[in-house]
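In the design runs reported in the main text, the only information available to the sequence generator was the tokenized backbone. The following block is the verbatim input for one such run; it is reproduced so that readers can re-run the procedure and compare outputs position by position.
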């Protein structure tokens, strides 16, 4: 299949083209962060968007801890890889965790059909479902942050067990990934890295 590199915004309505530009085309993952704070009101708006996105059975297993103060962010420092230490200057750091007993909320979240019995005695199924859909919600968090004018930088270079011990000692929640939120400190330091051509990543049957 030849890669055509179709112009994404070609012949799209202006509002959709602007959204595509903000969410994908112009958005970059900062390597250097400004210390400009993220208002708490913005974090509330952020969650109000994220919570509306789809998950399996509307289970919404992700849980978010937003670290906004220097003291809160310093609690995270011992768990970070060396390369991620500097990202603590971002206005906020989101710990995206997942609730291993998310199914306890399903009678409320899925009133038309309560699937919670299938998870009660199947902890491995509950864990997989929570992790997969919590990861999905982390993606929604990044897109919602960009829509609200924030930069977002996901991080996987950290000791998840150390984060859990510091923030989720009761064991119900487990850390999935971290996301720096805020504003880049200046323009990108290098061009956007290549992406796979459609011919290497897509099959249409």
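Verbatim output:
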């Amino acid at each position: 299949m030849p890669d055509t590199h179709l112009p994404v915004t070609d012949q799209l309505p202006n509002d959709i083209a602007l959204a595509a530009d903000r969410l994908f085309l112009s958005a970059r993952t900062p390597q250097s962060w400004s210390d400009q704070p993220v208002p708490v009101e913005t974090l509330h708006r952020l969650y109000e968007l994220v919570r509306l996105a789809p998950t399996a059975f509307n289970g919404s297993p992700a849980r978010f801890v937003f670290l906004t103060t220097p003291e809160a962010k310093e609690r995270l420092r011992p768990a970070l890889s060396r390369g991620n230490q500097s990202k603590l200057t971002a206005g906020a750091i989101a710990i995206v965790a997942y609730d291993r007993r998310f199914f306890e909320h399903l009678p409320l979240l899925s009133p038309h059909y309560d699937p919670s019995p299938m998870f009660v005695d199947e902890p491995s199924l509950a864990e997989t479902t929570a992790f997969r859909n919590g990861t999905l919600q982390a993606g929604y968090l990044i897109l919602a942050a960009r829509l609200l004018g924030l930069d977002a930088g996901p991080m996987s270079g950290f000791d998840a067990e150390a984060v859990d011990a510091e923030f989720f000692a009761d064991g119900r929640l487990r850390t999935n990934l971290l996301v720096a939120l805020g504003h880049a400190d200046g323009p990108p330091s290098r061009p956007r890295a290549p992406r796979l051509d459609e011919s290497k990543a897509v099959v249409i049957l």
